[in-house]
Design brief:
Elements: E1 8-15, E2 30-34, H1 40-60, E3 68-70, E4 74-82, E5 85-92, E6 95-100, E7 103-108, H2 115-133, H3 136-141, H4 147-156, H5 167-171, H6 181-198
Antiparallel strand pairs: 1-2, 1-5, 3-4, 4-5, 6-7
């Protein structure tokens, strides 16, 4: 049987290109980067590549921003939630080991990733932050609130469930399962008891 890996989160970062104008201050444009223990060179390279890609694609379509980059091993999702602020999430594609002509090779399963699902996850992260913390520009303008974004993302990113993302993430809804009458009455009775005791 061929071994198959799952989708995984490679990195997640927030940057603002206007925070740095000089080449020796490139690190200032990185507002948040996950994983935090990544080398500074890797962080700067990834952010620089995304910034260049966004600028390049705006040449062809100034009104519509780059949203997804497909590579052989990854998918990179871009979101500009506010002017000059970019959120980027990179997902590693699932792989499967296969044999052809008695040789083992790894196939990247790009069809297992639905762009709109992961784009919705990225948008959901921003909407959740906005609901609890406010806009990025407001939070980062106030020195006393700068840690709010880091604290939120440090809490949120481990809970992203990129391995189990599905169509429900697009609608940001809850899946309801049908119950027969007897099971429904038992659940309703249990909920009423809880409300009566603790409510």
């Amino acid at each position: 049987m061929a071994a198959k890996t799952q989708v995984y989160l490679l990195n997640f970062f927030v940057y603002n290109p206007t925070y740095s104008k000089r080449e020796d201050e490139e690190h200032k444009k990185i507002i948040y980067y996950y994983p935090e223990d990544a080398e500074q060179d890797v962080k700067l390279r990834n952010v620089g590549l995304c910034e260049a890609l966004v600028n390049f694609t705006q040449t062809f379509s100034p009104s519509k921003h780059c949203e997804v980059l497909h590579t052989q091993k990854t998918r990179q999702f871009f979101l500009q939630p506010e002017e000059n602020f970019w959120m980027v999430m990179t997902i590693g594609l699932p792989t499967q080991q296969k044999t052809r002509n008695n040789q083992l090779y790894v196939e990247h399963l790009s069809d297992d990733i639905q762009d709109h699902v992961y784009q919705a996850i990225l948008e959901g992260v921003y909407k959740m932050f906005q609901m609890f913390g406010g806009s990025l520009s407001e939070v980062l303008a106030d020195p006393s609130k700068k840690g709010k974004l880091k604290d939120f993302l440090d809490w949120q990113i481990p809970r992203l469930r990129v391995q189990h993302a599905d169509l429900l993430d697009v609608f940001q809804g809850v899946q309801f399962l049908p119950l027969d009458k007897h099971a429904f009455l038992r659940v309703q009775c249990f909920v009423n008891r809880l409300e009566g005791r603790f409510g």
